Amino acid sequence: MIKRLFIKTYGCQMNVYDSARIAELLAPLGYAETGQAEGADLVLLNTCHIREKAAEKIYSELGALRRLKAAREHRGDRMLIAVAGCVAQAEGEEILARAPFVDLVFGPQTYHRLPDMLARAATRPVLDVEFPAAAKFDHLPARRSAARATAFLTVQEGCDKFCTFCVVPYTRGAEYSRPAAAIIAEARRLAEEGAREITLLGQNVNAYHGTAPLNGADDGDEWRLGDLIRALAKIPDLHRLRYTTSHPRDVDETLVAAHRDVPQLMPFLHLPVQSGSDRILAAMNRRHTAAHYRATVARLRNARPDIALSSDFIVGYPGESDDDFNATLDLVRDVGFAQAFSFKYSPRPGTPAATAPEQVPEPVKAERLARLQELLRAQQRAFNAASVGRVLPVLFDKPGRHRGQIVGRSPYLQSVHAAAEAARIGDIVPVMITAAEPNSLAGAIVARDRAA
Ligand code: SF4
Description:
alpha/beta, Rossmann fold, pyruvate-formate lyase- activating enzyme, CATH 2.40.50.140, 3 domains, six-stranded parallel beta sheet, five-stranded mixed β-barrel, 13 helices, binds iron/sulfur cluster
């Protein structure tokens, strides 16, 4: 009998990847994904702990699910509720205390034990929030569904950096790198299933240090991310590689050389800096300076002159002065970003910065964020405008909003839409960029023989 599974995923690409693996894990147990909680036999919330009030949002969501569950049980039927991901990891016991109608609570490192947890949940609520990252990947079924021309592949988990504003080391655990042989095998299967672009995922992906494959057997040598990228680039039909999220301190020579030598590695890098002030970077425990960040960007641009950069910024970190903020604006002007994400500092329970003195008043944070975003938007507009009149290779991976329109990504991760039949989805096609819109480009497909 088919059982209906509804998964709601919050947060980062790693949660998206985990939700896809959870669905694959439950398929042999008869679970098939459905698009809504109503009527589902198992509702699973895969949560994120990054944003403010993340946990409170989950409790209000659970309130609605409680009513659905009660209605099903009133009809003599059963609906299981599961909470997974980083809120489950951080607040597992509290979730079961505040929401005793929840059947399963488990962290990002234990979902490979779901079949057993489901069996145990038949008689009592289950809580499983251990940190055995390594075990998870060894027990997941071989991945089969590429489903789209682009795919995500987790290569590293956890983080040892302990930035003072971040919960990830507490919710995802210590850094763990998957053996290269397992990653290459998974990527090969994805390419055979139709993936033409793979994004390698990790909370600190460029801290990757996995065991090297040799004649198919790991011999204990260690590979860095640059080595892994070179090996993945040899997989037939895998035309594009990307990776996210990186730390400036882990941009080593193997990675810079990969950007120089590996054409499949796309010239776009998300490299969070958070602040341009050395005083604030030190307070954040980022353990690098603004000068180090500028020098790292210069090494990357020297290796791949057309590389485009994206970054993350936090304004209003405790103690941030006007001078500190101006240092951030100076760094943004000096580097120039094609895209960026910027946030007001918000205290995360359990992180050192949450109890730091000199919390910045909300109006000051708001004013600084507005000025920073104005500068970042101007840079993104200028970057997109400079693409007009160029022919860019675009990997189309989904239908557009309008009939006869398809959407894809340029090498610089710009969203590009063009008029074409859906049959072109999955192809990398030369596109003449005709217009730049705030967050995307418009273009016309160019016959290959006319492409530059
Ligand atoms: S490096 Fe990233 S994931 Fe790790 S603690 Fe810092 S912000 Fe969080």
